[in-house]
Amino acid sequence: MRVLFINPETERYARQIALPLGLLSIATYLQVHGHTVKILDRVIKAGNIKKEIEEFAPDFVGVSVISMKSFYDAEKVTKAAKTFGAKVVWGGVFASIDPDFIFSNIDIDFISIGEGEETWLELVTTAEQGGCLKEIPGLCWSENGETQYSEGRPFMDLTTLPELDFTLVDVPKYLTSQYGYKHTCHEYMAKGCVGNCSFCFNKKFHNCKYRMRDVDTFLREVKYLMEHYGVDCIYFSDELWCRNREEMKYQCDAFRESGLGFKWGVQTRIGIFDKEDLQYMKDSGCLWVDFGIETGSREMMKKINKGIPYDGIEQTIKDCNDVGIVTLPSFIVGLPDETRENLYDSVQLAKRINATHMTFFFFMPSPGMKLFNELVESGRYDPPKTFRDYQRAKFFTAPSPNFSQIPSLEIKVIRDFFLWRAFSKQSFGGEARKYELAKKNIIDVLKQFQGHGIRFALHHFFFSAYEFLSIFFYANFFPGVLKRYGIDKKNDFRN
Ligand code: B12
Questions:
Q1: CATH number for the domain harbouring residue 36
Q2: What Cα–Cα distance (Å) separates residue 462 from each residue in 66, 100, 457, 467?
C-alpha cells in the first residue's frame, strides 16, 4: 500500500519548526513492514498539494492534527486527497481527543486514536486483504452523524519500535540553535507523564502512563543524526524525562558510555532530582532543564493538581544554577478563578527563583483537559463549534477567553513582561548569555531565509516582528500594572 503522511501548515500563525516525530515513527513502522510511505511537512514547504497527491497516488492519506492551528490546512489537504479517491485518516492529539468535533466539521474516513503505529499497520494490511476496517482497534468514524468507535487499542511496547528512518524527512531544515549548539534536533525517549494536572492532555491521551523507548535504539538514531547532519544537541520532546534517579542514571550512563558526546535538554518535574543528580546530568551533557511550575500560589497549585513540592522549587532552581544547567521554568497565567493575589504570588516566586528564562503562558481551554470539561459543564465556556470559530479565537495572542478574576490587560502585561525580560536579560546561572533568546530567534529566522525560500522567511519574519513589537509595548508601557505586582522599575529584577 502507498501511504502519504501530511503535517499541515499553520498558515495564520507564526511558524514553529520541529521534526514531526509522530509521523516519522508511523511512516518508519509501515516502511519496515513493506509499505511505501512519504511524509509531506507543509510547515516546511507548502507545495501544490493536488499535484503532490496525484504524483504519489496514495491509497491512504494520514493527516496530523495536533491542535486547532492546523485545521485550516488540514481541511485543504483532506479535500484534495478526497478528490483523488484516497482514504483519509486524521490522527494526533487534538483529533484523538475530540472526534465528535472533527466529524461534525469534515468528511474523513477515520480518526486513529492515540499512538498510530500498530493501528496504521493493521489498517493498511487489512485494506490490502479486503478485510473490515471498522474491526481494527483504535479507530473511530462517523455514521449517520454519530461517532462510532472500534475496540480501544492498548498502549504499545515502545521498546519494540524500529530505529527512525530520518531519510523520510529533510533533517537539516529542522535544526535549530540552543545555547550555542547550532544543530539541535528534536527526539524523544518516553511518552506520557506520572502527573495528572487538570490543565493537561496527559490523563485523556496517555492515561498518566509513562513508557520508555529502548535507549540503544535512541542512541543509534543520535549517532546517525550526528554523522549525517552534524547534530550536536538533542531537544527531548518528552513530557517527562525520567521518573526517578534510577532511570536518570541509567540513561546518563548510556549517553556517556556511547562516547557520542552530544548535549541535550529535557523537561522534568520539580522534586525528582537533587543537586547531586543534576551534577550527574550535567556531566552527561545536560544543557537545560524545563520545569512546569505553573503558579506561585499554593492554593492554585492544589486546584490544578500540580503535585510538585512547592517548597522544593527554589532549591531545585538554585541547584541547577550551582551546577551550571540552564533553567526554563514556565507558568500559566489566567487560570480559572485565579485572583490578583494568586498572580502576585506567581510573580513573586518568579522573582525569587533566579531562573535563566521564565515563560508565562496564557491559560487556554482545550478538549481533553479536566479544566475544559469543568468550564463547559458549569456553563462558563461555550467552546468553538467550527474550524472557523477556532481560527477567529485569539487563544495565543491574548488571554481570551479569560476565566480568571484578573483583568485581561494585566494578564497580558505580566506575560509580556516576562517574555521581554527573557529576550533582553543577562544570564544568571546556567550557560545562557545576554540576549541569548533574542539571538537564537534571529538566527532561526535568518536560517529560514537560507533554507526555506523567501515566502516562508518573510511570513515568519512578519509574524515574529509583530509579536516582538506587541511584547515590547505591553511589557514597557503599563508601569501601573507592573507596580501592582511588585515588578516596577524600583522593585525590578532585570539585569
Ligand atoms: C514537539 C512538539 C511540537 C512541535 C512539532 C510537533 C509535530 N509536528 O509533530 C512544535 C514545536 C511545532 C509544536 C507546536 C505546537 N504544539 Co506541540 N508538542 C510537541 C511535543 C512536545 C512532542 C510531540 C512529539 O513529537 N512526541 C513524540 C511522538 C512520537 O509522539 P506523538 O507526537 O504523540 O505522535 C504519536 C501519536 O500522537 C499519533 N499521531 C501523531 N500524529 C499522527 C498523525 C496521524 C495521521 C495518526 C493516525 C496518528 C498520529 O501517533 C504518533 C506515534 O505514536 C508534544 C508533547 C508531547 N510530549 O506529546 C506537544 C503538544 C502535542 N503540543 C501542543 C500544543 C498546544 C502545540 C501548539 C498549539 C503550541 C503553541 N502555543 O503554538 C503548537 C501547534 C502546532 C500545530 N501544528 O498544530 C499540545 C497539544 C495539546 C492538545 N491539543 O490538547 C502538546 C500535547 C503539549 C501539551 N502538553 O500541551 N509542538
A1: 3.40.50.280
A2: 24, 35, 8, 9
Is 438 within the bounds of a domain? yes
Instruction: Read off φ and ψ for residue 111, nearest 5 degrees.
Output: -115, 135
Q: Is the pLDDT of residue 206 over 50?
A: yes
Which among 125, 142, 159 is the end of a domain?
A: 142
The closest-lying atom of ligand 1 relative to the alpha carbon of residue 367 is 84
In angstroms, the Cα distances linking 108 to 77, 199, 241 are 11, 29, 35
Q: How far apart are the first and last CA of the chain?
A: 59
Please give the pLDDT value at position 495: 47
Domain that holds residue 13: 2-142
- Strand 359-362 and strand 139-143: the pairing is unpaired
Residues with Cβ within 8 Å of residue 115, at least 6 apart in sequence: 22, 153, 155, 156, 191
pLDDT in tens, 376-423: 999 999 999 999 999 888 788 888 899 999 999 999 999 999 988 887
The reply to whether 102 and 194 lie within a common domain is no
Measured distance CA(462)–CA(456) in Å, rounded: 10
Name the residue at shortest CA distance from atom 41 of ligand 1: 92
Q: How far is the CA of 209 from the centre of ligand 1 (A)?
A: 17
CATH number for the domain harbouring residue 250 = 3.80.30.20
Ligand 1: residue of 42, 67, 160 to mutate (most ligand atoms within 8 A of CB) is 67
pLDDT tens, position by position, 248-291: 999 999 999 999 999 999 999 999 999 999 999 999 999 999 99
Residue 147 lies in a domain: no
**Residue to probe by mutation, ligand 1, list 64, 66, 444, most atoms within 8 Å of CB:** 66
pLDDT in tens, 111-146: 999 999 999 999 999 999 999 999 999 999 999 999
CA nearest to 18, candidates 55, 45, 43, 38: 43
Residues 228, 122 within the same domain: no
